[in-house]
TrEMBL record:
Protein name, UniProt field: EGF-like domain-containing protein
Keyword presence, Disulfide bond: yes
UniProt source species: Porites evermanni
Annotated InterPro entries: EGF
Lineage top rank: taxon: Eukaryota
Disordered as annotated region, ranges: 315-335
Keywords associated with the record: Disulfide bond, EGF-like domain
Disulfide bonds: 96-113, 115-124
Residue intervals of the EGF-like domain: 87-125
């Protein structure tokens, strides 16, 4: 320990304060110098409390402590009955920012900062707040105490101004993101590198799916090499996971024309039912369904929907299309079988 090799500790007195941490010794002494020597003689002592007033025997209570106030700021309180003495440390200048805790290394006269969640850096001076960006760039986010990098989009690329955090990217030609896939109901990631590459053909599911709250959702679809088309849902939630995983239907009111914007002029839907939102399912579960989207029917009910536009889709008329537009008989633009790349971002 530090005291074996370096005996010139300088103690700083702070009147009427008390540090409530485990004690490594308790003595009665005549003055602060006696208590200082007791601390120096104990290799586990890093600070001490000394009574402000003498007892009936004319002595002061001296409490040797195993830690110091910089590592335990929540246990350091004003107390009229004691004075606190702490070793002079690099933490005296409060180098750790944003609520970080300074941990002194007495042997090497150095320190480390233990940062609160959401901050990092030598002095906890850096944060993971996306919305301070003003340009699309690769940033590091902290989720579940783990770091991951994503390409965060800033500016109006089709969903309005501000910063947008990627959540999922899916390929309608693949069954990985079908409506029945466990990716919609678990907290497992898929291909984190896909979160770094923007609106391309890589699929991904990021930790932001279950651990980022939001008030807006940006949905995008891209057909082949065309530019993606976007729509926005104003929806507040603790996470995307909380919207989807319980399977409960949650309605939106965008209207069929807005959903068709994702596909463009080729978009096709039947004219009736038009059930939209999250966890959208026909009354006949073998028919069209979508984790996010709209389903339609050629009859005045939602039992046998045979058309849809959405993300995480499934059911007839084509069970294999996990993202895009499926339309069967009596649809306004005829039969369609359009598989797209799908992009989900939140703000």
């Amino acid at each position: 320990m530090y005291h074996h090799s370096l005996r010139q500790d300088v103690f700083i007195k702070e009147e009427h304060h008390y540090l409530n941490v485990p004690k490594v010794g308790t003595f009665t002494v005549y003055d602060s110098l006696d208590c200082t020597f007791e601390c120096l003689g104990n290799p586990s002592c890093l600070s001490f409390n000394l009574a402000a007033y003498k007892g009936a025997d004319g002595k002061l209570r001296c409490e040797l402590l195993s830690s110091e106030k910089y590592s335990n700021p929540e246990e350091y309180k004003r107390n009229e009955s004691f004075h606190h003495f702490s070793i002079k440390t690099p933490c005296m200048s409060s180098p750790c920012q944003n609520g970080g805790t300074c941990v002194a290394n007495y042997k090497y006269h150095s320190f480390d900062c233990r940062c609160k969640e959401g901050f990092y850096g030598e002095f906890c001076e850096k944060d993971f707040i996306l919305y301070r960006l003003n340009v699309t760039q690769l940033v590091t986010l902290l989720v579940d105490s783990k770091l991951f990098s994503v390409l965060c989009h800033f500016g109006n690329f089709g969903c309005g101004d501000g910063g947008w955090t990627p959540v999922m990217k899916m390929d309608g030609n693949k069954i990985r993101h079908l409506c029945t896939s466990t990716l919609w109901s678990n907290k497992e990631t898929f291909n984190l590198d896909g979160g770094k590459t923007g609106f391309d053909l890589q699929e991904t599911k990021l930790p932001s799916y279950w651990n980022i709250s939001f008030s807006k959702i940006c949905l995008g679809m891209k057909i082949n090499d065309n530019q993606p088309k976007f729509i926005v849902i104003n929806k507040q939630a603790n996470s995307f996971y909380s919207l989807i995983t319980d399977g409960q239907y949650r309605a939106t009111s965008l209207g069929r024309d807005t959903w068709k914007l994702l596909i463009g002029s080729d978009a096709s839907l039947q004219l009736s039912c038009n059930k939209e939102g999250f966890n959208v399912v026909s009354d006949n579960p073998g028919k069209s369904k979508a984790r996010i989207g709209i389903i339609s029917n050629d009859q005045d009910h939602c039992v046998s929907c045979n058309s849809r536009i959405g993300f995480g889709t499934g059911g007839k008329p084509d069970e294999s299309n996990s993202c895009g537009n499926e339309a069967s008989k009596e649809s306004d633009k005829g039969r369609k079988h359009i598989k797209t790349m799908g992009y989900i971002l939140v703000q």
